[in-house]
Amino acid sequence: MKGKVYLVGAGPGDYKLLTLKGLDCIREADVIVYDRLANVNYLKEAKSNCEFIYVGKASSQHTLPQEEINRIIADKAKEGKIVTRLKGGDPYVFGRGGEEGEVLKAEGIDFEVVPGITSAIGGLCYAGIPITHRDHASSFHVVTGHLRADDKENPEINWNALANTGGTLVFLMGVANLKKISENLIKEGKPKDTPVALISWATRPNQRVIISTLDEVHETAVREKVKPPTLIVVGSVVNLRETLNFFENKPLFGKNIMITRSRTQSSSLVEKIMDLGGNPIEIPTIKIEKIENNVALEQEIRELKDYTYLVLTSKNAVDIFFDKLDEMELDARALAHVKVCAIGAATAREIKARGIRADVIPKRFVAEELYEALKEQLTSEDKILIPRAKNARDFLVEKLREICEVKEVHTYESVIDLSKKDEILEILNQERVDYITFASSSTVKNFVEIIGEENLDKIKNSKVISIGPVTSKTARDLNVDVYKEAEKATIEKIVEAIVVE
Ligand code: SAH
């Protein structure tokens, strides 16, 4: 097997500002090498056995020297692995992507580059600043602010040219040299009152924009404690922000919303909150516990030859089943005669990672849809194996039993995750949590049990949103004040309860 490297631009931070091609590279990777500016949530899209290597740099303190990063990438590819190198923004905009490509070429390693949305353009956009505009700037210049100490004798940057182009100037990595940058531009003739924007954590929920002028910007930045990553934008396009700022005007911009995750995943809630500009903080209150020494599962695996279908309804179910096969010194060939069904695309990806393409994948990820897809093809002769969670819904098994023989084997159960206490308390202590959502009675109970009653005062300034009357009652019984209840028990209505204050 031949390895390959994808140098992928991960965009400026907003989760959805990633290319489809970039997402494919993340999903296919055996190894992902990523740094500080790439949104870590992308790692959730990777295969379950994908290796993650953090090579982050926090401005001046390099965690890993570039040579070492090059080495890791090249070595992993030589082992025959698919390596995805995730870089913030675009890999070729001050990302040293060119250097990594050169090393790969020299070592005869196959590589591809996937461009990304650079912060130098996309970051400005989310601050309401168009990098060009017919009335303001007909060119733009993206400049490194990471100046070498000896720039007097050996000027890397032609300040005179920059000061006089009239185009928008964007400095990356420039916070530490802001004084030098502004002084040089003024010295070479750029008007002192030229507007400057400092955009920190652009496109993220914690985006912060400070407006100043060229002569005052350094002082302002010190006063406001501006830190990297920050974009420095110089030019009159900055004034358009008042009109074009859409991102910070989103209904949930700047709001931290804690989501206590239940058995039914909360991903659509997370996505809606992000679309509205909010910052979802997911708190898993439940963990998966595998049933150990699962003799029942071993028994059915030994009798796989009698089965015609295997139904896998979660990533956990896939992992446990295939790990057991491996433990019994079997592999995917044991399923050669069996049709394998996944509950949704994500489960199908996990199955594929184990060497099998799922035969049945419903469009929507619910038991009802899987049942609809299956009932067309099943006959009374079929025999179905469903290894799954102990506390799973009955629907699928019951309905399928109306058609043929179904064997359900419990392989794991979800239990309250008390180990999350410190993590949750740390978030409640460190951040302003504006809202906490509870989508079921059990999530309220678990949440209170995890943090402990004595810590309930830590959420007294957060507004609690409940999905309905039953959940609200449970909350009140546990001394949790409910600020608002969703009109109906849906994710949409939870979001509405937050947005429509
Ligand atoms: N390849 C990246 C740039 C890497 S250099 C790109 O195309 O965006 C790192 C610098 O980029 C940071 O110091 C900062 O100036 C800028 N930067 C990257 N992402 C940013 C973000 N989300 N907000 C503000 N600045 C960002």
TrEMBL record:
<dbReference type="InterPro" id="IPR006366">
    <property type="entry name" value="CobA/CysG_C"/>
</dbReference>
<dbReference type="GO" id="GO:0004852">
    <property type="term" value="F:uroporphyrinogen-III synthase activity"/>
</dbReference>
<keyword id="KW-0808">Transferase</keyword>
<dbReference type="Pfam" id="PF00590">
    <property type="entry name" value="TP_methylase"/>
</dbReference>
<dbReference type="InterPro" id="IPR050161">
    <property type="entry name" value="Siro_Cobalamin_biosynth"/>
</dbReference>
<dbReference type="GO" id="GO:0004851">
    <property type="term" value="F:uroporphyrin-III C-methyltransferase activity"/>
</dbReference>
<dbReference type="InterPro" id="IPR036108">
    <property type="entry name" value="4pyrrol_syn_uPrphyn_synt_sf"/>
</dbReference>
<dbReference type="GO" id="GO:0032259">
    <property type="term" value="P:methylation"/>
</dbReference>
<dbReference type="InterPro" id="IPR035996">
    <property type="entry name" value="4pyrrol_Methylase_sf"/>
</dbReference>
<dbReference type="Pfam" id="PF02602">
    <property type="entry name" value="HEM4"/>
</dbReference>
<keyword id="KW-0949">S-adenosyl-L-methionine</keyword>
<dbReference type="InterPro" id="IPR003754">
    <property type="entry name" value="4pyrrol_synth_uPrphyn_synth"/>
</dbReference>
<feature type="domain" description="Tetrapyrrole methylase">
    <location>
        <begin position="4"/>
        <end position="217"/>
    </location>
</feature>
<dbReference type="GO" id="GO:0019354">
    <property type="term" value="P:siroheme biosynthetic process"/>
</dbReference>
<dbReference type="InterPro" id="IPR014776">
    <property type="entry name" value="4pyrrole_Mease_sub2"/>
</dbReference>
<feature type="domain" description="Tetrapyrrole biosynthesis uroporphyrinogen III synthase">
    <location>
        <begin position="268"/>
        <end position="496"/>
    </location>
</feature>
<dbReference type="InterPro" id="IPR000878">
    <property type="entry name" value="4pyrrol_Mease"/>
</dbReference>
<keyword id="KW-0489">Methyltransferase</keyword>
<dbReference type="InterPro" id="IPR003043">
    <property type="entry name" value="Uropor_MeTrfase_CS"/>
</dbReference>
<protein>
    <recommendedName>
        <fullName>uroporphyrinogen-III C-methyltransferase</fullName>
        <ecNumber>2.1.1.107</ecNumber>
    </recommendedName>
</protein>
<comment type="similarity">
    <text>Belongs to the precorrin methyltransferase family.</text>
</comment>
<dbReference type="InterPro" id="IPR014777">
    <property type="entry name" value="4pyrrole_Mease_sub1"/>
</dbReference>
<keyword id="KW-0627">Porphyrin biosynthesis</keyword>
